[in-house]
Amino acid sequence: MKYVVHAIAGTTVILIIASFWISTLVSEMFLDYSAVTAVKHAIVYGLLLLVPFMAATGGSGFALGKMRKGYLLDQKKKRMAIIGTNGLLVMIPAAIFLNGKAAVGEFDKLFYAVQAVELIVGVVQLTLMGMNFRDGLRLAGRLHSRADE
Ligand code: HEM
Predict the structure, then answer these.
(1) 144 and 138 Cβ atoms separated by less than 8 Å
(2) How close is the Cα of 75 to the center of ligand 1, in Å?
(3) How far is CA 57 from CA 41, 74, 122, in A?
(4) Ligand 1: distance of its center to the CA of 15 in Å?
(5) 132 C-alpha to center of ligand 1: Å?
(6) What is the pLDDT of residue 147?
(7) pLDDT per position as a tens digit, 138-148
(8) Residue 87 CB–ligand 1 contact under 6 Å
(9) Is residue 77 in contact with ligand 1, taking CB distance under 6 Å?
(10) Where are the alpha helices (DSSP H) in the chain?
């Protein structure tokens, strides 16, 4: 049962972050300031959903990991530490900062610099989560690497 919770929480986290990333890019590239402001606002509220799902993914992952050892698990733990650090030190502060700037119409150089950092670190987060997803399937025996063939 624990692994079902883990897989659902992990997949939800990936989908939430991907939706933040895509809505940010689409609003910045194709829509007006009011849409950008609405997206910044929605992302801050979305964090209230993301944080518990992230905690559930990590918590259930570490619980599942207690019963096993190995390279794939060690890699997943290391990636999770980077994902958590990036989330707390970059993604959450950036989302709150950008929402504050957008709310008062300050779309200046600093806004776009922080926006660029958020998008770049977002790609890093999605990549690390995708790798954890892949290695999770390997640990569960649902995916085999080329080396196994
Ligand atoms: C964003 C982070 C993560 C994602 C997206 C993720 C995703 C997944 C997925 C999709 C599975 C396959 C479940 C199944 O098909 O049965 C899985 C399995 C697993 N994950 Fe994660 N995971 C993440 C983080 C972690 C962490 C931090 C740990 C441990 C420290 C961990 C430990 C495990 C273990 C041990 C399994 C194998 C479960 C089994 O025996 O069936 N995961 N993970």
Answers:
(1) yes
(2) 11
(3) 25, 16, 18
(4) 16
(5) 7
(6) 59
(7) 999 988 876 55
(8) no
(9) yes
(10) 2-30, 33-65, 71-86, 92-103, 109-139
User: What would the pLDDT profile of 38-84 be if each residue is shown by its tens digit?
Assistant: 999 999 999 999 999 999 999 999 999 998 899 999 999 999 999 99
Contact 57, 6 (CB under 8 A): yes
Q: Is 3 in the pocket of ligand 1 (CB under 6 A)?
A: yes
Identify which has the larger pLDDT, 121 or 147: 121
The protein residue with its alpha carbon nearest to ligand 1, atom 20, reads 136
What Å distances lie between residue 27 and 14, 19, 39, CA to CA? 20, 12, 7
Q: What are the Cα distances from residue 9, in Å, to 38, 70, 112?
A: 26, 23, 31
CA of 112 to the centre of ligand 1 (A): 35
Report the chain's mean pLDDT, rounded to a whole number.
95
Residue for token digits 């019963």?
A: 67
Show the tokens assigned to 138.
Answer: 């390997």
Please work out whether the CB of residue 13 comes within 6 Å of at least one atom of ligand 1: yes
